[in-house]
Specification:
Chain lengths: 206, 206
DNA sequence: AAATTGATAGTTTTGTTAAAAAAGTCAGGA
DNA sequence: TCCTGACTTTTTTAACAAAACTATCAATTT
């Protein structure tokens, strides 16, 4: 098997993405420099700019990779749920772990808050749509099974629950007024969310 | 009827509170100066300090007054609801109007975010407890009427819904990425909340 | 004595500028 | 085509002066 120039490029790009991911994950966007990433790979900073146009697009590329992993974990399990509740629990736990394990990586979000680059918004939107799609599918299945009432607009229902679940976190955090939720706190949020999902599902039944 | 010195003081304090409220409401805490408040009343700034120890405590006093009005609107209606849904709708609409009409006034909150003065936290807590109490009472009544299942911990349930309703706003705002929600946007938030409350109540039924 | 004020002290915010650090470019070498 | 050192440009940081504001107080009026 012949190794082409493009393969070589891709391998190097991959190495760069790994190093960048490592830095972004541990120190956040603003606290990692292009020099440091280059240093980790024993290459010159200029070479980074040969492979990626600028810092923010390098970040986006890493984000893309991270998001793809998350998206895969969702699509892998779509339509495999015993019931709606299992689907919601999966969504709650999977998203939760995704956010916790990438907490520092997302400081770019918290930093820019409004006006994120379009490329980032696309990824965020895509992730959101994928989550929604998975849950909408679970709802439809549950309707077909006759377990819950037919829903005129499943997407609306799913997004409503996702917004509500989000509220459980932000309120919980603001009340405890701590930036970094600890283990017990996270467990409290989780159990509240499960309770909310539980009541919500019952509210969809006949 | 004799007018005592204390009555006079209270009248003047009240005038100051009004002027301060006016300024805080229109320009927020950080954008109003003690000089301006004094100027509005044609008095010297030093006199403000004769009646109130400092700016933040003046703000708290105004907050106290504003909160009392809100608390009264809650207690006036407690136990007057035809059903649980009516109580939730009342809570949603009343709180919503409270927040909208006092939006700028609350910039003090957004500004300090974490570490608010204790006096403010007490008021916030009191308001939250009053809202919760009203809804807990409505839930208990509904249980007694046999309309919904007995609830082991009504307070937990109410707080869960309040958190969830909060999420509907913050998510809705962050998605539209606009600081000041407009009329239609607010109406959208309201209808989402009503839908959520509706499903939630059904989820509490037998 | 209680209410009020002008003057002023003390503190926080804002603006300015210089130095440092980081992002980003480029001519040229392997 | 891949890579680098040296260079330019932009952004961040630090230091400090000016301005704005909070807060105090001795003196004055009611």
């Amino acid at each position: 098997m012949m190794i082409t120039a493009n393969d070589q490029q891709d391998v190097k790009k991959e190495k760069i993405l790994e190093a960048a991911h490592h830095r972004f994950l541990h120190f956040g966007y603003s606290k990692t420099t292009m020099n440091e990433i280059a240093g980790d790979l024993s290459m010159s900073k200029a070479l980074l700019y040969y492979y990626f146009p600028d810092k923010s697009q390098l970040y986006v590329a890493v984000m893309r990779k991270v998001a793809d992993g998350y998206l895969k974990s969702l699509t892998d399990r779509i339509n495999t749920f015993a019931d709606l509740k299992e689907a919601f629990i999966f969504q709650i736990d999977t998203q939760h772990e995704f956010i916790v394990t990438n907490y520092n990586f997302f400081d770019f979000f918290r930093l820019n808050e409004q006006n994120l680059p379009d490329a980032i918004w696309e990824i965020v939107t895509q992730v959101h749509e994928s989550e929604t799609h998975m849950l909408v599918s679970a709802i439809k299945t549950e309707v077909d099974r006759g377990k819950i009432k037919p829903v005129s607009n499943p997407t609306e229902i799913v997004e409503l629950l996702l917004d509500a679940l989000h509220g459980v976190r932000v309120k919980s955090v603001s009340h405890k007024k701590t930036m970094f939720p600890n283990k017990e706190h996270l467990e409290e949020i989780r159990s509240k969310r499960l309770l909310l999902a539980d009541i919500f599902i019952k509210g969809l039944m006949y």
